[in-house]
Design goal:
541 residues, alpha/beta, Flavocytochrome C3, Chain A, domain 1, binds succinic acid
Length: 541
């Protein structure tokens, strides 16, 4: 099937099946048929892997003001206060609606009414609603069960979105749907929809080391950039301080909630190196902890630091963190007894496709929510467990907007991929290019940056983006090639935005600009004929 002819029609098209996409689909289904395209199986999402939980003000000792203040403090002066306030206020209602839908959250021992509220880095109060260390899985399975029962919603698995169908600027930028690759049959197709929701998750796979699942290849960011959308704060990549360091443990996260229950970080000599560096010690905001781990390992010439959870004890650790316990045991580590070797790894994209509080992008009919979207909530560093909250609030709001059928003639569909059979060594070359992008991002766009490193990154990523784009236009489509085209474009945008931000703030540390600019400014990036253009705009609220 050619990508030039419409293969599916629906009122609403949803790309991605994490919390944002599923929440949106359930709400938007009131207006007519919803089609969800998801590139692996329906539960392959970052949501499903989320261990920590959902931040919400539920304790009598907590308040919206405190949650807002913690979010702004973590965000290092770059959060949009009005958006933070609006999102934080929705927390309690969101927990109620997820509970009504069937999600089960952990309660305090012997108290069927009171939820057990966890603590994570940067929070001044216990406010993390959790299902032990499987919170994301609980939410994902609850939403999937509701979607499965809904007569208006269809889910197509193994369907990888290729490009958005958007008219050129001269004819008014409006989205009509998207093209896709059916990875089982190899066929391409085109969906025509009144509204399209991008909920494709983040960009962790742009980096060599990440806590993210394999699906996190920046597809939404890359598609939106090609369609002419602005991307906000793309240089703000959050590294989680505690990813398990083990040669056989691919991207396994040790939740910050473990430190919330009392675990501390030590260097290999046993010193608690976060002591005295921040009032919250090992529970300081993530940017601070990740940077200090980086500094400490470099200072000592070590490869990792240790998470000492012995104060929690084996029994309590197993009970509170069953999934982490089980995984650690496969490597011979007893949680709550043995020190856990950890390193920082790419975890969350705080920037993304610029949207308003209803998830509207700059292109009519195109929405975004979840990690792919940029609302201004996370600023220069996301507060732990604020992301499921932000994703759900935005998806709910966007899903309440009545779809407007597009008027006038449809623009030409997105250019289809090529038809040439792959070269005999194409697979090997693609593997090397994937490795090259991911290593480059780690080495030149990691925790510590400089003009020299970013110049190298931009030059090489621009070349990789051109090469993968050219190959995509001529060669039969494959997921490896499509994703390489996306990670190289996303990496290029990230590195170009990082080069433009000549200051150190939150997650962005420049050795050549160690000071923080007194005027907080957002970076807005756009991709045009001449490459990536970045403007720095003073924060509006
Ligand atoms: C964690 O459990 O540490 C991850 C929570 C988050 O990233 O919000």
């Amino acid at each position: 099937m050619s990508a030039h002819s419409v293969t599916h029609r629906c009122t609403t098209l949803v790309l991605g099946s994490g919390v944002a996409g599923l929440t949106y689909a359930l709400r938007a289904a009131q207006f007519g048929p919803v089609l969800i395209l998801t590139k692996k199986s329906r539960s392959d999402s970052s949501t499903n892997r989320a261990q920590g939980g959902l931040a919400a003000v539920l304790s009598p000792t907590d308040s919206f003001d405190l949650h807002v203040a913690d979010t702004l403090e973590a965000g290092a002066g770059l959060c949009r206060r009005d958006v933070v306030e609006a999102v934080v206020r929705e927390g309690p209602a969101l927990i109620r609606s997820l509970t009504e839908l069937g999600a089960t959250f952990a309660h305090r021992d012997g108290d069927s009414e009171g939820l057990d509220l966890g603590l994570e880095g940067g929070h001044s109060r216990r406010r993390i609603v959790h299902s032990k260390d499987r919170t994301g899985q609980e939410i994902e399975s609850t939403l999937l069960a509701a979607v499965a029962k809904h007569p208006e919603i269809t889910v197509l698995e193994q369907h990888l979105a290729l490009d958005l169908w958007v008219g050129a600027a001269e004819v008014g930028r409006r989205c009509y749907g998207a093209s896709f690759l059916d990875q089982e049959t190899g066929a391409t197709g085109l969906v025509r929809a009144d509204h399209t929701m991008l909920s494709t998750g983040g960009c962790g796979k742009v980096y060599r080391y990440t806590t993210n699942p394999d699906i996190a290849t920046a597809d939404g960011v890359a598609m939106a950039a090609r369609a002419g959308c602005s991307l906000g704060n793309m240089e703000m990549v959050q590294f989680h301080p505690t990813c398990l360091h083990h040669s056989e443990a691919k991207s396994f996260l040790i939740s910050e909630a473990v430190r919330g229950e009392g675990a501390v970080l030590r260097n290999l000599a046993g010193d608690e190196f976060m002591e005295g560096l921040h009032p919250l010690g090992s529970l300081a905001p993530r940017d601070v902890v990740a940077r200090e781990i980086d500094r400490e390992t470099k200072r000592r010439g070590d490869k990792f630091v240790l998470l000492d959870a012995s104060s929690i004890g084996e029994k309590r650790f197993r009970e509170r963190f069953p999934a982490i316990s089980a995984r650690l045991e496969t490597f011979g580590i007893v949680g709550g007894r043995d020190p856990i070797p950890v390193v920082p790894a790419a975890h969350y994209m705080c920037g993304g496709v610029v949207v308003d509080l209803d998830g509207r992008t700059e292109v009519e009919g195109l929405f975004a929510s979840g990690e792919v979207a940029f609302t201004g909530v996370h600023g220069a560093n996301r507060l732990a467990s604020n992301s499921l909250l932000e994703a759900s609030v935005l998806a709910e709001r966007a899903g309440g907007i009545t779809p407007q059928p597009a008027e006038g003639p449809e623009p030409p569909p997105p250019p289809p991929p090529g038809t040439d059979p792959p070269l005999p060594d194409q697979g090997v070359i693609l593997d090397h290019e994937w490795d090259a992008v991911r290593s480059l991002m780690l080495n030149y766009m990691g925790l510590v940056r400089s003009r020299g490193r970013l110049d190298r990154a931009v030059t090489r990523l621009a070349e990789m983006k051109e090469w993968s784009g050219d190959l995509y236009r001529t060669s039969q489509p494959s997921s490896d090639l499509t994703e390489l085209r996306n990670i190289s474009l996303a990496g290029l945008i990230m590195a170009t935005a990082a080069r433009a931000r000549e200051e150190s703030r939150g997650l962005h540390t420049r050795v050549d600009f160690p000071e923080t600019d007194p005027v907080p400014r957002e970076s807005w990036s756009r991709v045009g004929e001449g490459g990536v253009e970045v403007t720095l705009r003073p924060l509006e609220s």
